[in-house]
Design brief:
6-stranded mixed β-sheet, alpha+beta, Rna Polymerase Sigma Factor, Chain: A, 6 strands, elongated, 13 helices
């Protein structure tokens, strides 16, 4: 049993980390929660009798670990949920706010090969997207848990109720409230909601390549040509965010490629995060030391959302 459990924990480690990330919105916290899940599984190994698969059993333990953590931690956020109005691009971006727990991006290593249940309400692509993870953060811990177990993992009401030690009726009620709350903050819900092309789609790749080339060449007009008219740009840990191609263009000209541009320009390197295209960026004078990672959401053949995480520690994870 010990050898089998050790193998199961290793086999399903990424799945467990991915579930914990959906709960917590932080890779560092998800890794810690996955480690705690493994310890609890090992300590309670005698209670595993094979009624459920090892993966389901580990997910049940991880759910309880994350609910316990969320009792003492604030939900993670992105700038549009912190500031009610878009910032003025004529003014310098607001300085970082470290008191806020900011949502963090997820390296695609944890998404590649992840399991997706056909019974789930959300596709794998949507269930790891930044917009979906941000919307989850507003839900109370148990509502978040029920929605993840039922709509993302595809569990039955009975399985979710058992995992949460509550009745099926209480579980169904919590799921209804979670779905209503999620629709209020995450309007693109359901199996057909993610209109963005998959990252491996040829058109999406060409758009990303054009964006990255324009960024590296300081070609602001070419950058703007890749964006929707209603594009939004956010730069956590700054609470400032910008709405509309005109405002984003002004921000780029005045600040990003103006007063805040590194002397040697920018170096870029394509990557993927949260199942979405993106790239690492930093100073061309020190290209091996990225200062941040930019994640792009695409819709209708153009960039809809740009989230620039300005954090060397996060960039190093990619």
């Amino acid at each position: 049993m010990s050898e089998d459990l050790t193998a199961a924990i290793e086999t399903h480690r990424r799945d467990v980390v991915l579930l914990c990330y959906r709960f917590l919105g932080s890779m560092a916290e998800a890794e810690e929660a996955a480690q705690e899940t493994a310890l609890k599984a090992w300590r309670s190994r005698a209670s595993f009798r094979g009624e459920a698969s090892p993966r389901t059993w580990l997910h049940r333990i991880a759910t309880r670990v994350c609910i316990d953590l969320l009792r003492h931690r604030r939900g993670r956020r992105l700038p549009p949920s912190v500031r009610p109005t878009a910032a003025d691009p004529l003014q310098p971006p607001d300085p970082p706010i470290t008191e806020i727990a900011w949502l963090e991006p997820l390296p695609d290593d944890y998404v590649a090969g992840a399991a997706s249940d056909p019974a789930a309400r959300y596709s794998l692509q949507e269930s790891v997207s930044l917009a979906f993870i941000a919307a989850l953060q507003v839900l109370p811990p148990r509502q978040r848990a029920v929605l993840l177990l039922r709509d993302v993992l595809g569990w039955s009401a009975g399985e979710a109720a058992d995992a949460l030690d509550q009745s099926v009726s209480a579980t169904n009620s919590a799921l209804h409230r979670a779905r209503v709350a999620l629709q209020a903050t995450h309007h693109r819900t359901g199996s057909t909601a993610v209109a963005a092309a998959a990252p491996e789609d040829a058109f999406a790749r060409r758009l990303l390549e054009a964006y990255v080339r324009a960024w590296a060449a300081d070609d602001i007009d070419a950058l703007l040509a890749t964006m929707r008219e209603d594009v939004r740009l956010a730069m956590p840990p700054s609470p400032a965010w910008y709405s509309g191609r005109r405002a984003v263009g002004e921000l780029l000209r005045r600040w990003i490629f103006g007063a805040l541009r590194p002397p040697g320009g920018y170096a870029t390197r394509p990557t993927r995060a949260n199942g979405q295209p993106g790239f690492l960026f930093g100073s061309a004078d020190d290209p091996d030391r990225p200062i941040g990672v930019i994640v792009l959401s695409m819709e209708a053949g153009l960039v809809r959302d740009i989230t620039a995480f300005l954090d060397e520690g996060l960039a190093a994870r990619f």
